[in-house]
């Protein structure tokens, strides 16, 4: 089933006093172009994170972000009671010895070195990483689901355009049948304008057949029909097919262009122009296909 390259996914899991948030966005790109923003605690897992994303998202310009929201009380810097006691004793002793009036308040104590400190070093445990992995997988699952929904809309659009091209190709048939007689009539009429000319009717028939064969578009029509069906069949494959659809669209364009070069009637050329317009819309949308 066809998927779009555009997608978005976000997931949040709670672990102890923190929320682990993961956000993944994807846009069009010929290859996988992955950029990451990773919270410091998880940077040691960056290579593993990149591998997870690249294994599941084969193409697209992907922006990956993982960050942490902590509980405000847990995030606050704690007061070091030992240092407060140490400074208080020292200040009182000096004030007593020097007979200095003590007018110290809490704001003064809190500004002293190491009173407010966070000395613990945060490390990534296996349980927390398992929670983070779960958030990553959920965000990617959501993005893939988004891609599938967008892909369904793409497929509907493609089928509409393929049907339009097939319908326009059928509109060529009446002009194909009538132009043979028109060519014959035009040549014989021009010969009649030349006075006292004699010509071999058998040779004229041979030349007409040669000329008509050069303008015949039967092979182009058959190949275009085959390409249209191949495009439909390819959309049903359960694999990335965007590049393959692009190649098929190119082959369709060659057959339509050749048909246009062989179409020596204004009505036929107008139909070919419409076919080119439908194909161009397919080519534009193929760029969005995974």
Could you characterize the architecture of this molecule?
- By secondary structure, the chain is an alpha+beta fold.
- It folds into 3 domains: 7-73 and 127-146, Ribosomal Protein S5, domain 2; 78-110, no CATH class; 151-286, no CATH class.
- 62% of the residues lie in helices and 13% in strands.
- It is built from 10 helices and 4 strands, in the order βββαβααααααααα.
- The chain has helices at 46-56, 72-75, 81-98, 106-110, 126-171, 173-192, 201-215, 218-235, 242-262, 266-286; strands at 7-15, 18-27, 32-38, 60-70.
- It has a 4-stranded mixed sheet with strand order 1-2-4-3.
- Strand 1 (7-15) and strand 2 form a beta hairpin.
- Helix 5 runs antiparallel to helix 8 (218-235).
- 21% of the residues are buried.
- The mean pLDDT is 83.
**Which class of secondary structure composition applies to the elements?**
alpha+beta
The percentage of residues in β strands lies in: 5-15%
Helix content: 55-70%
Low-pLDDT parts are none
Strand order across the largest sheet: 1-2-4-3
Mean pLDDT: 83
* SSE pattern: EEEHEHHHHHHHHH
Number of domains: 3
In this structure, how is the largest beta sheet organized? 4 strands, mixed
Rg of Cα set: 37 Å
Shape annotation = rod-shaped
- The total count of strands amounts to 4
Please give the alpha-carbon distance between the first and last residues: 10 Å
Which helices and strands, and how do they pair?
Layout: E1 7-15, E2 18-27, E3 32-38, H1 46-56, E4 60-70, H2 72-75, H3 81-98, H4 106-110, H5 126-171, H6 173-192, H7 201-215, H8 218-235, H9 242-262, H10 266-286
Parallel strand pairs: 3-4
Antiparallel strand pairs: 1-2, 2-4
Helix pairs in contact: 5-8, 5-10, 8-9, 9-10
């Amino acid at each position: 089933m066809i998927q779009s390259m555009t997608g978005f996914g976000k997931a949040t899991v709670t672990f102890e006093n923190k929320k682990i948030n993961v956000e993944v966005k994807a846009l069009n790109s010929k290859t996988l172009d992955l950029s990451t923003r990773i919270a410091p605690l998880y940077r040691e897992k960056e290579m593993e994170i990149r591998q997870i994303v690249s294994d599941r998202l084969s193409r697209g310009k992907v922006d990956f972000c993982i960050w942490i929201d902590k509980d405000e009380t847990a995030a606050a810097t704690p007061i070091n009671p030992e240092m407060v006691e140490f400074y208080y004793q020292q200040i009182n002793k000096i004030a007593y010895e020097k007979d200095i009036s003590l007018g110290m308040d809490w704001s003064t104590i809190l500004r002293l070195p190491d009173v407010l400190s966070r000395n613990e070093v945060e490390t990534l445990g296996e349980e927390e990483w398992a929670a983070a992995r779960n958030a990553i997988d959920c965000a990617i699952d959501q993005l893939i689901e988004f891609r599938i929904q967008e892909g369904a809309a793409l497929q509907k659009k493609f089928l509409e355009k393929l049907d339009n091209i097939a319908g326009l190709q059928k509109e060529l048939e009446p002009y194909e049948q009538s132009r043979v007689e028109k060519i014959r009539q035009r040549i014989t009429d021009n010969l009649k304008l030349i006075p006292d000319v004699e010509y071999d009717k058998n040779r004229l028939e041979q030349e007409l057949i040669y000329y008509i064969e050069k303008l015949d578009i039967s092979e182009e029509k058959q190949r275009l029909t085959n390409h249209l069906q191949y495009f439909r069949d390819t959309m049903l494959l359960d694999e990335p097919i965007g590049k393959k659809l692009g190649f098929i669209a190119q082959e369709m364009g060659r057959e339509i262009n050749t048909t246009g070069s062989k179409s020596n009637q204004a009505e036929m050329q107008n139909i070919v122009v419409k076919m080119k317009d439908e194909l161009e819309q397919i080519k534009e949308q193929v760029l969005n296909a995974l």
